[in-house]
Amino acid sequence: MDSNRAPSARSEVYAKLREQILNLELPPGTALSEKESSLAFGVSRTPVRESFVRLGQEGLVQVLPQRGTFVSLIDPELVEEARFMREQLERAVIRLACASFPADTMKQLETNLRLQRESMAESNDKRMFELDEAFHRTIFEGCSKRNTWAVIQQMNAHLNRSRLLRLVSDHEWNHLYSQHEQMVSAIRDGDAGLADRVMQEHLSLSIRDQAVLRERFPHYFK
Amino acid sequence: MDSNRAPSARSEVYAKLREQILNLELPPGTALSEKESSLAFGVSRTPVRESFVRLGQEGLVQVLPQRGTFVSLIDPELVEEARFMREQLERAVIRLACASFPADTMKQLETNLRLQRESMAESNDKRMFELDEAFHRTIFEGCSKRNTWAVIQQMNAHLNRSRLLRLVSDHEWNHLYSQHEQMVSAIRDGDAGLADRVMQEHLSLSIRDQAVLRERFPHYFK
DNA sequence: TCTACCAGACTTGTATGGTAGTATGGAAGT
DNA sequence: ACTTCCATACTACCATACAAGTCTGGTAGA
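Output (structure tokens, whole complex):
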């Protein structure tokens, strides 16, 4: 069941750093250092270095030779493009879903909706966030577009640093939930036009978040 | 002008390995090894290792701990999804281009078309391939979607291993060129519907290549 | 006071040795 | 002939030492 019987030091460090960057626990612009991180994690520089390489490729850190490694500033252009890509791909996929969608995957969506209602009742924001992600992922899986979702997730690393604020403004969840419900109905009815419109509106919400974050933390941005 | 005054050993090794994998010079399934590669490139194992990490993240190689590193087999599902993503994003972008496109970037497209005619006359396939890539990239740049193009390029790594065969069947170029011409006209006229249709057809051509390659080299595929 | 310079404390880049897990082939036992 | 076991030769993983570039602060000289 466990693909990695012994999780490597590298993957541990990588996962932890990535999480901290996405959390804004390590804010944009923070100076990292191989040595410092290796001490913090209790490993040698090698696995830390290789984590930096991976994070650098994803654009989450910037490695300047002989100068230092820094958590990347949020690039508004990159964020907007990430939103654009996600919008195009999610709309295309949900149109596919309206043409044909497996029954058991539809069951999963319905279960997910029920869990969303429960989480909203409990005001469990963290759980709600996970369910939101799972909801979208499930649509991709129903259309055999697992890898496409994976690419979106990578792009979303940048988008998500901006979206963090919404987590605290939980009054938005009701709106998002009703959109999720509309999507499921549209897929069930095969109404691609409706699904497309709802998804487009659904994904346009994140634009405003960035403006708010930018105003509050101007030095986080490029 | 040179972003890297002294190209690092790592980036050299990475670029070379990547090129060889995309060339099929290193066919899918080939066993690599840190030691062997380090000897071949005349560097230590460290930069080779870090190249493996990068290539692994792109899905071009598969690193199995304590077992070995292998050039990834071509995953048909991944290839189809790459094609799907590219289609959706290119169609969305060319529709944007029809709404608004900078005059100087339009000049570049026209220049590119002229060079394409010259290269076809010379039967210069390599040049033609480069111009084709530049053509599409220019459309993205005109719409301020540089990063989106970069993501497509990464996905295309998988797609391109399948597209290699087309390079030798140069009789296709005439068809591709006329489609390019139609796209430029459509952008000039702001005819998003036409542009979308042409682009869709344009990008559907690569599907057949995979079938051919798969038939000839079944052991290259997953 | 201001400038030029240099020493030292950083940084990442590269090389190398040792460790642990894995595949393989041959020998010993059935 | 067939199976089991083990020595051996791999593999990637990690730790560590050294190399080379960069920044900083203090100092000597004008």
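The radius of gyration of chain A is 19 Å.
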